[in-house]
Write a structure and sequence with these properties.
By secondary structure, this protein is α/β, with parallel strands linked by helices. It has a single domain, classed as Alpha-Beta Barrel (TIM Barrel), CATH 3.20.20. The chain contains 12 helices and 8 strands. It has helices spanning 2-11, 15-28, 39-51, 68-88, 107-123, 138-150, 167-174, 199-215, 227-239, 257-265, 281-290, 292-304; strands spanning 55-58, 92-96, 128-130, 156-161, 180-184, 219-223, 247-252, 270-273. The protein has an 8-stranded parallel beta barrel with strand order 1-2-3-4-5-6-7-8, surrounded by 7 helices. α5 links the parallel β2 and β3 (128-130). The longest helix has 21 residues, at 68-88. The radius of gyration is 18 Å and the shape is globular. The two termini are 26 Å apart. 39% of the residues are buried.
């Protein structure tokens, strides 16, 4: 299974496969995981999820921008997203990648761009989540998050990845900020020198991070579809009297929707990450790598033609 995951993640960088998948992907079933290619496509999906009792976030898919002018177009697009969320009255916030805002060009450029969006979100009573990317971007991402918090911005959070050996130290360093953190297992192809190669070790690290974060004073987004870890979070919170307002479960659009609604019925907040945009290929490949059932879903659609 690990070899299959590595193969799929490596294929995420294949321009030839990208052209093929982007040509036929939505017909084959990519729409199960992506809410369309435009904001107009995404808004009805976000509204439907909200009406089902689910919170949502949305992301304009894209990363690795290397042109400063293009980063300004991304900022403008996210400003439009925040304005549209406000106008539509959606229970939706925004998640974004710093390499989409110029981190691969210049860290200060990315900081200025994301600060503008955090300020724009605050004026509309909204929140921005800074996603975590490959390990080489972790230090810069955490520096920018800290800089935003030091500037007085409370409506911003970030993400920690359980499969990196360094993450327990990163969490300990962040806890004095009472941070808003999303905990994920990790979806990039990383070498065993810096990341746990075995699923069991990642799961154990996730449980440790979960307990430390919940025991702190911040907010914890438990981002997993793993029912054993979900139940562990619930038990840990109940045993220590941690109020439900201090954590929520986060899952991906199109993955375990019945579980999402069941948790809502049990009285928990559940947020569904619901991305959109024409640059959806790499996102789709990471979803396929995470769960073989996702790959089988697309292959069945291919056979049906």
């Amino acid at each position: 299974m690990s070899a299959l995951r590595s193969l799929i993640l490596a294929a995420a960088d294949s321009p030839r496969l990208q052209r093929l998948v982007q040509r036929y992907g939505f017909r084959l079933g990519a729409a199960r995981f992506v809410a369309g290619e435009t904001l107009d496509d995404a808004v009805p999906v976000l509204r439907r999820l909200n009406e089902s009792g689910l919170l949502t976030n949305t992301t304009l898919l894209g990363e690795g921008v290397r042109d400063e002018a293009e980063t300004r177009a991304v900022v403008a697009a996210y400003r439009e997203v925040l304005d549209r969320i406000h106008a539509e009255g959606l229970r939706t916030n925004v998640a974004l990648k710093l390499t989409h805002l110029g981190l691969s060009i210049d860290e200060e450029l990315a900081r200025r761009n994301v600060a503008e969006l955090v300020e724009h979100a605050a004026a509309r009573g909204n929140f921005v989540r800074i996603d975590m990317e490959e390990s080489r971007h972790v230090d810069a991402t955490l520096r920018i998050y800290r800089a935003l918090r030091d500037s007085g911005h409370e409506n911003v959070g970030t993400v920690l990845q359980a499969y990196l050996y360094r993450t327990e130290d990163d969490l300990a360093a962040l806890l004095p900020l009472a941070p808003n953190l999303r905990l994920v297992k990790g979806a990039y192809l990383e070498p065993p020198e810096i990341a746990y190669p075995r699923k069991s070790d990642v799961d154990a690290a996730y449980a440790r991070l979960l307990e430390a974060s919940l025991a702190g004073k911040g907010f914890t987004a438990v981002a997993t579809h793993d029912e054993s870890l979900i139940e562990h979070a619930i038990s840990f919170a109940d045993e220590r009297g941690i109020p439900r307002e201090r954590f929520q479960f986060q899952m991906l659009y199109g993955v375990r929707p019945r579980l999402q609604l069941e948790l809502v019925r049990r009285g928990f907040d559940v947020l569904v990450a619901t991305p959109y945009g024409p640059e959806w290929y790499r996102y789709l490949m990471r979803r396929l790598a995470e769960r073989p059932a996702n790959l089988l879903f697309l292959l069945r659609n291919l056979v049906r033609g």
